[in-house]
Amino acid sequence: MKSFLEFSLINIGDTHLKVYTIFIIISIFFITKLLLTIIKNALGQKRLFSRLDEGTAYAIFKIIKYIVWLIAIGFFLESIGVKITLLIAGSAALLVGVGLGLQQTFNDIISGIILLSERSIKLGDILEIDGDVIKVQVIGLRTSKGLNRDEITVIIPNSLITTNKVINWSHQSKKTRFRINIGVSYESDIEQVIQVLESSIHEHSAINNKNLIEARLVDFGSSSINFQVLFFTENIFEIERIKSDIRRIIHAKLKKNNITIPFPQMDIHIDKQDKEFKHTKIINA
Questions:
Q1: Which of 55, 105, 133, 215 could crosslink 197 through cysteines, CB 3.0-4.6 Å?
Q2: CATH code, residues 121-168
Q3: Local mean pLDDT, 10-residue blocks, the chain (285 residues)
Q4: CB distance 115 to 158 below 8 Å
Q5: What residue ranges are annotated as transmembrane (predicted)?
Q6: CB contact at 8 A, 240 and 149
Q7: Over 102-140, what HEC string results?
């Protein structure tokens, strides 16, 4: 058995890959996987970590996972006779060249570490990036993945999140306030319009804190009296569908109450004497 374990499979200079080395590498791999599984299960137990939400636990696990695998790779190399310190020192010049070539990749990796450690963005957060609304599904070391409202997976370099302006709709609270704008005819009764708008919002099932629904008169436009109705909802990701439903309810209620939504209008007044004067002036010229 001893001779079998010490049998050399590959010989490269002073480095000998023996059978027991393979067993050590396999053991390190499975021990690492087992350790990460135990850590993941421990973080997932709310009774032990009641203060950690899903996103925070995910971020902590990702950081631990990268550190543990980095240590495991070090053990892999040491087990086959590769000295880590000598390897790093011997490849310093090469690493500089690779670093310059992969500068953006390293920038994304550092950004990923910042996102995981800072926890400003977590799993399930609703982000608005470059005009696209995305629900975060995975925060990786180099890139993050999210699902947009068209059910398309979007892969985002982490540096784009850390260096650009990003709106996190769900960072402070699960509920977010939204608004719908509408204009009605000047002949409409203002109090009746406000009552119709607020009652329309009350009818939708996705609205939270219905006592905070508020309709406001915001401006006197050129063709209409402009109103704004505000409401809270937790269903941030599907807000456009919710707004569409509410607009349909508002339109039906306005029509039922004989309140019109006017077309843009412009009144043109022509002064007959002024027209004749200009005409005469042009002829004389």
A1: 215
A2: 2.30.30.60
A3: 57 62 81 84 61 64 80 76 62 58 73 78 85 86 86 88 84 80 92 93 88 91 91 88 93 92 74 53 41
A4: yes
A5: 20-43, 55-77, 83-102
A6: yes
A7: CHHHHHHHHHHHHHHHHCCCCCCCEEEECCEEEEEEEEC
Q: Which of 208, 234, 235, 236 shows the shortest CA–CA distance to 127?
A: 236
User: What is the Cα–Cα distance from 65 to 43, expressed in whole angstroms?
Assistant: 12
Q: Are 159 and 175 in contact (CB under 8 A)?
A: no
Angle between helices 19-44 and 54-79 (to 10 degrees): 170
For the record, the structure tokens of 52 come out as 């950690």
CA separation for the pair 106, 247 (Å, rounded):
47
Q: Distance between CA atoms of 128 and 165, rounded to whole angstroms?
A: 9
State pTM to two decimals: 0.57
CATH class, domain 176-256, is alpha beta
